[in-house]
Design brief:
Chain lengths: 959, 82
Amino acid sequence: MSLIHEIDYGTPASKSEKLVTLTIDGREITVPEGTSIMRAAMEAGIEVPKLCASDMMEAFGSCRLCLVEIEGRAGMPASCTTPVAAGISVSTQTQRLKDVRRGVMELYISDHPLDCLTCAANGDCELQDMAGAVGLRDVRYGYDGANHVKARNNGEINRQWAPKDESNPYFTFDPAKCIVCSRCVRACEEVQGTFALTISGRGFDSKVSAGMNEDFVSSECVSCGACVQACPTATLTEKSVIEIGQPEHSVVTTCAYCGVGCSFKAEMRGEELVRMVPWKDGQANRGHSCVKGRFAYGYSSHKDRILNPMVREKVTDPWREVTWEEAYAHVANEFRRIQYQYGRDSVGGITSSRCTNEETYLVQKLVRAGFGNNNVDTCARVCHSPTGYGLNQTFGTSAGTQDFDSVEHTDVAVIIGANPTDGHPVFASRLKKRLRQGAKLIVIDPRRIDLVRSAHVEASYHLPIKPGTNVAILTSLAHVIVTEGLANEAFIRERCDWSEYEDWAAFVAEPYHSPEATEAYTGVPAELVRGAARLYATGGNGAIYYGLGVTEHSQGSTTVMAIANLAMVTGNIGRPGVGVNPLRGQNNVQGSCDMGSFPHELPGYRHISDDATREIFEKLWGVTLNNEPGLRIPNMLDAAVEGTFKGLYIQGEDILQSDPDTKHVAAGLAAMECVVVQDLFLNETANYAHVFLPGSTFLEKDGTFTNAERRINRVRKVMRPKNGYADWEVTQKLAQAMGLDWNYSHPSEIMDEIAATTPTFALVSYDYLDKMGSVQWPCNEKAPLGSPIMHVDGFVRGKGKFIRTEFVATDEKTGPRFPLLLTTGRILSQYNVGAQTRRTDNVVWHAEDRLEIHPHDAEQRGIRDGDWVRLASRSGETTLRALITDRVAPGVVYTTFHHPTTQANVITTDFSDWATNCPEYKVTAVQVSPSNGPSDWQRDYDEQARQSRRIAGKLEAAE
Amino acid sequence: MSDTNAKLIYMANQIATFFQSQPAREAAQGVATHINKYWEPRMRRKLFKHIEHGGEGLNPLVLEAAAKIRRPEAAEAVINRG
Ligand code: SF4
Ligand code: SF4
Ligand code: SF4
Ligand code: FES
């Protein structure tokens, strides 16, 4: 094992198809037109000295170190900014070049501290490297004159000097070491798209600063780390590197936070993780990352992690640490007893969208083959189950249609009910890049999300709908497209069922679907709807990206169908730049759905009633499978309250915090006789658990995650599990304790089983993934390289199916008692229920959940910014602090759900999507009033949580 | 009417509401297929029981679809096998 060194070609690759041949140092080289001389040289293995260039950004040409000579041309052009030309002959090393480069380096070094030996970048500093490369042997100028290096010059305060900025929890900025190459500034602009950094002043006085001379943490900086990666010196350095030192080996793995699925190099020293650096060859992220994947991994070694299995008789007892064997035996006995007493169908399992495909596969296998029923579900139930249903009905498969690269070809992006800059930051950066190149943007969201207006990005249309009216607005968009003759009939005739189209077109053309008619309840001016529809239908490649703001409604599945209808009616399917793209929340939501986590389907989305599919698994597993669908999470809880469901094995999910109507979830859990929680921490659900099995982090195991673009990425073990076992091993041991004959010695064998049973995974194996980097399913004989884009020559189901989408208002209605609509969302620095991110320094950006409320509504209620307010719905109430903002419309309030003390889900109701029971998180009628502190429920809950977290023989852990 | 019964009726009616908006010839079959595919036997069993007791509160489309909904095995049989 060694450290992976990625080649920096100095400038981005040219996309031109025309080739040009030139000579560099006597070697003939052929490259695409538009390639820089620097890159061409590097491709031939000749490294021209450079400081300000990096292939993540456009060339800038400021350091003058990369000069070359070209035969027949005067002067010494910079190789980074000079493109190749046919037939030219370039020299990268001549006496004249050597002299100039040494002179340049001498100037740099004369204003740079000479503490290389104790510098954190020692061994990873391009300034050092270049000094070596150009043969710099002495520096004639001292620090006596003007410099940025010393705090004092001859006793006087040096105004050029600035102290270190250590405000960011993860990296430091030491201006004394800055060579003003502006790579950081350009990385922030071009790669991240935040524009947080500037260079002020000119010449010798120029300096880098965050925002308007703010410190990093108070600036616009979102801590993505792109600048740190770009910095050639120690000026911007990870604090972990300062603390530990340079890494000695690295392993490529996949972020375990969100559905973008960024690839990282985990840079290690022994088993200590030094830093996570985004991998340039990562096909989802192309070398970029966000604060979570890049920095927020500290939870893996947090003191709250539970490392020993624990058992207790009653949930009011303190936990008792036991051996693994005892824990397995206890679970096996309990589940057998419960099944004997209450019937085979009285137990079930929940798979995790945070665990690997292999682990998820094993949990559903345990339920189907071991428990002998199909009571398995996953947390995707509460987020993207309508995507599965809606896209399956219309297109024939439950997945997004594109890869992320596709956005580079998009002309009109439509974002519905998603907030990519917070939820899917690396995708947002790639989208913003495209928008800066001129693509247009339509945002459909009750809230003015950042993308509506931010640095160098402005949406052409923002349709600020009333929460709960998605179907109405999307059907209105279709109305405009159909009635104004903008439908792509050629595409529809070729790809879709024409008579279904005609039926649908007549339906949407009804006058009551016109924007003028729906305006009354969507709250969106008809003209905006018409403009947006025209832009999407006629603006070139149109791509729809959507999130939980679409799915988490009582009409979630209908909304997904409405989106699919829009893509079909405009012909925006089946090529780069278009498509329907669900932005998945957690890292492996896609994978957990693919792996048969739903109670009605086996891996690969095949219904459990299908005899042929069952037979495949029955043969392999040696059991008879039940052909009836099992219970979904909400049904399990209902059945538990009713007394017919008694035992639940939950891997890596916190249903008490993440599922709606907390009180109902709690009642369901409390009614069970054996709740087994497998997790890193004593999560909220564990308050009701009888057995706790410690989990392992993504750093501690091998496996795969499948991201939102269906990309199967490898997760690689970089350290031994702190709890002793990877999660797949725990499930296997549990299965063995229940008498199942499982003998996987490595997750690759589980993947082989998946490939053998699931046609869309037929060619997937660890060897193949190692060779390819990653692949997007379907990956089989028909598509050996995987499928970046789906439905290319026709829909998976045959003909695309248009489905009528009638708007039905939710029964969750405002009234005199609950006059406001609450909608929920997430924020960049935190992740889902926050169990991980709350245990990192990310809390500096989001220490608590706040309630966003419009100034008008706040004033009416006498609420000032920062006041504690009581938030009540018909389900329950909680308290949190108000944040007054006009991002939300009057009548709408908004909060996140990252902190357990807020218990936002005490408020949400048990209404759910008609087709999938996906809960209606995004609309709850509420009232907001001033308050002076936590509600009774919060106090009781805290007390109960504290009680139930006690471990016998241990002092109470202070949270 | 128990709480969970009320929930079940609500869910069935939600499904019916969707299929009601679809072409009439597909509506009842749509409801039945959906319930067959996604409802666990004890949910279907309860639905039938409720229908046998008059089906109060159910959307007529659910009642129409009932003939096409698969009848699960009796509950006792399952428990004995457990
Ligand atoms: S961390 Fe990211 S957002 Fe912050 S300054 Fe650097 S590049 Fe910009
Ligand atoms: S902080 Fe680093 S990247 Fe930015 S200008 Fe200074 S040396 Fe260059
Ligand atoms: S959280 Fe998402 S965007 Fe951020 S690094 Fe991880 S996968 Fe990438
Ligand atoms: S690398 Fe070309 S001018 Fe700096």
